[in-house]
Automatic annotation (TrEMBL):
Keyword Zinc-finger included in the entry's annotation: yes
MF-aspect GO terms: DNA-binding transcription factor activity, RNA polymerase II-specific; RNA polymerase II transcription regulatory region sequence-specific DNA binding; zinc ion binding
Biological process, per Gene Ontology: pyrimidine nucleotide biosynthetic process
PANTHER family: AZ2-RELATED, ZINC FINGER PROTEIN 142
Domain of life per record: Eukaryota
GO CC terms of this entry: nucleus
Protein's UniProt name: C2H2-type domain-containing protein
Keywords, ordered alphabetically: Metal-binding, Pyrimidine biosynthesis, Repeat, Zinc, Zinc-finger
PROSITE patterns linked to this entry: ZINC_FINGER_C2H2_2 (PS50157)
Residue span, C2H2-type domain: 8-37
Length: 185
């Protein structure tokens, strides 16, 4: 442990920073020392090496906007920077329950507890037309289980079928798009 703790100085002659921990020096060299800003405001050109500085900037300079932070350079040669937008605590004290990932669609007010759920929402739900249709009436939903639940309640003597109107994966699973698919309840 002696090699991990001590007085570690930045080897850059233009930098006079000292660190108690070796990992802090490594972080400094990788992300900060003579590096361009790592985080950016999504609403203007403000950028900083510190995420909290950008969060504070958005809260004070763009008070009517959602607090979001873009990590610059994460999406190499991709336009979809939104997958790298950091969640921001909705309260002053950060607790796991208060961290939310807001939907990036300005017409959608949904927030999610993790990035996986946000990505799923963006890919399969947000702004998409209903994907599933009841075979007995015109009831549609983005969720298959909603149509199945509807069919059990409203058409209890039916064949428990759901029609998939389109597929978001780009692949037709066994050619069932547009055909009734029967499920056991």
């Amino acid at each position: 442990m002696g090699a991990l703790m001590g007085n570690f100085s930045c080897p850059n002659p233009n930098c006079s920073k000292n660190f108690k921990w070796k990992k802090n020096l490594a972080y400094h060299l990788k992300y900060q020392c003579e590096k361009p800003p790592r985080y950016k405001c999504p609403y203007c050109e403000y950028a900083s090496k510190w995420r909290k500085d950008v969060e504070r900037h958005v809260q004070t300079m763009h008070p009517l906007e959602d607090v979001k932070v873009i990590e610059i350079g994460k999406a190499k040669e991709e336009i979809k920077f939104e997958w790298y937008i950091y969640p921001v605590a909705l309260e002053k004290k950060t607790s796991p329950a208060s961290v939310k990932y807001p939907c990036l669609n300005p017409n959608c007010r949904s927030t999610y507890a993790n990035q996986y759920r946000l990505r799923f929402h963006m890919k399969h739900e947000c702004g998409k037309p209903p994907r599933y249709l009841c075979v007995y009436c015109n009831y549609k939903s983005v969720y298959k289980h909603d149509v199945q639940k509807h069919a059990r309640r409203k058409h209890p003597n039916g064949d428990n079928a759901v029609i998939e109107l389109y597929n978001t994966t780009g692949k037709h699973r066994s050619g069932n798009v547009g055909k009734p698919v029967y499920y056991q309840y």
